[in-house]
Amino acid sequence: MPPSTSTPVDPLKSPGHPPRNGFDRFFKISERGSTVGRELRGGLATFFAMAYIIVLNPIILGSGTDKFGHHLDNAQLVTATALMAGLSTVLMGVMGNVPIAIAAGLGINAVVSLQLAPKMSWPDAMGMVVLAGLVLMLLVASGLRQRVMDAIPNGLRRAIAIGIGLFISLIGLVDAGFVTRNPDAAHTTVPMGLGQGGQLAGWPVLVFVIGLVLMFMLIVRKTKGAILIGMVTMAVFAIVINAIADIPDAAWGLAVPNVPDQIVGAPDFGLIGQISLFGGFREVGLLTGCLFVFTVLLSGFFDAMGTIIGVGEEAGLLDNETGNLPGMGRILMVDGIAVAGGGFGSASANTCFVESTAGVGEGARTGLANLMTGGLFLLALVFTPLATVVPSQAATPALVVVGFLIMASNVRDIDWADFTVGIPAFLTMISMPFTYSITNGIGIGVLAYILLRTATGHFRKIPWLLNAVGLCFLVYFLLNPIEQLLGVG
Fold it and tell me: Which residues contact 17 (CB under 8 A, 6 or more apart)?
């Protein structure tokens, strides 16, 4: 027999069937060529691909200190992270009907912990996250979100994402003790070095190194849930090492890997609602406060948009003519609600997770998958004792891995041959980790782009929204001499 010339039919992309019942009709399960079993399996896969955030987010936020020397409680952060992820993910499933899960965004939590909190109280910092979410909702409702996104050149958007990836990678290296700051008393021109005195010392750092190697090995083998598997494995390894070796508790940092007294426990909701909407402006002033809100907004702005489109394309849900998901307005509105909700819960801004593609790969095509993912996050609330014994050295390898994945997916899309794009992109990328500030990176990149485009005679092609943003950043960087000139510093 001659070989068949017919094209195999993908059952997930074949024409849908009539709905079987109201539940099927609401989620469009049959219409999108899926089944309840496939949706639940996809939701389970997504949860295991992103469950690491329950441990990682508390470590990032817990490592920060506010202006008054206060730390956030680790157990309360675990509760806040799981609760807000669960509620946001379920809301996206019901309102947006897409298999896109939501949780505390990596990079945004670093902004909150390392930029906002040191200049104000924790409630003030979380209040600014809520304000960013409210602004985002207004942008969606007015249709300005797409216009603001269009105002930022693609190369600069990619560079912002890469800079955040490099920044959180550096945070992972520092929090693990792999990289440490050289004391100022040494009068050295080298600000940071390897381990202690140029050498890696101690079991905790070894846990980090082994964990990093393990995660990368799992990544290159395309193992599903690689980050979570690596984190759990190293947490168990750390508990064993801590039990047999004489390791001071202080060497581990925030969480000491001891066998927990209990596996389940009542969640602590003490951080929920602990916000001050406008208190941060009293601490840093109106301009700096607005720029902080803008930074939180921008940190998750493009990442969420790219994730939504990327996951939608992977699932075959994009409209062929517009390139958007059906119901994009509702999806973006939920994203804004998630940002504000994350701040309200003191879990930092919540955003869409690209790990949702793990569920799509298992067949998820509707919001029903989110009910499974969100439900598992809510179930995790009673397992807080397990999460609080994972040391940073077992979790921070994930920051380095995620930093690589962010860079790998964005760097090739920057037009390096166009120096008016390449130079601002480069400055954005290096400024974030080198100045330990995402705000500075964005501002330097925007100003460099405006100046270089102007120098090449293309000022009129720069969107006015971008010029307005650049003016705000110019005042931000020159705030000290302006205050001295006016005699108000």
Answer: 30, 31, 33
What letter does residue 102 receive in the DSSP assignment?
A: E
Residue 267's nearest CA partner among 151, 383, 164 is: 383
Q: What is the DSSP track for 192-250?
A: EEETBTTB--SHHHHHHHHHHHHHHHHHHTT-TTHHHHHHHHHHHHHHHHHHHS---HH
- Mean pLDDT, rounded, for 471-480: 82
Which H or E element spans position 430?
helix 419-435
Q: DSSP string of 27-88?
A: HTTTTTT--HHHHHHHHHHHHHHHTTHHHHHHHHHHT---TTS----HHHHHHHHHHHHHHH
Residues 6+ apart with CB under 8 A from 395: 52, 55, 56, 59, 231, 235
Q: Would you list the domain boundaries of the chain?
A: 32-478
State the pLDDT at residue 350. Answer: 95
Interatomic CA distance for residues 280 and 117, integer angstroms: 9
CA 255 to each of CA 56, 86, 252, 274: distance values in angstroms, whole numbers, following the listed order: 12, 24, 6, 23
| Cβ contact 291:119 at 8 Å | no
With beta carbons less than 8 A apart as the criterion, state whether 101 and 370 touch.
yes
- For 180, phi then psi, to 5°, come to -130, 155
Q: Are 103 and 89 in contact (CB under 8 A)?
A: yes
CB 80 within 8 Å of CB 271: yes
Contact (Cβ atoms closer than 8 angstroms) between residue 211 and residue 394: yes
Cα–Cα distance measured from residue 293 to residue 38, given in angstroms and rounded to the nearest whole number: 40
Q: What is the pTM of this model?
A: 0.76
| Phi, psi angles (nearest 5°) of residue 210 | -65, -40
Q: 172 is written with which tokens?
A: 């992972």
- How far, in Å, are 169, 226, 431 from residue 425 at the CA level? 18, 30, 10
Amino acid identity of 18? P
Q: Supply 355's token pair.
A: 């790990």
For 197, 315, 421, 469, the CA distances from 103, given in Å and listed in that order, are: 38, 20, 32, 28
Which tens digits make up the pLDDT trace of 201-227?
Answer: 889 999 999 999 999 999 999 887 788
Q: Kindly report, residue by residue over 131-186, the tens digit of the pLDDT.
A: 999 999 998 898 877 777 678 888 888 888 888 788 888 888 988 889 887 776 55
Give the pLDDT confidence of 405-442 residue by residue, as tens digits. Answer: 888 888 888 999 999 999 999 999 999 888 887 778 88
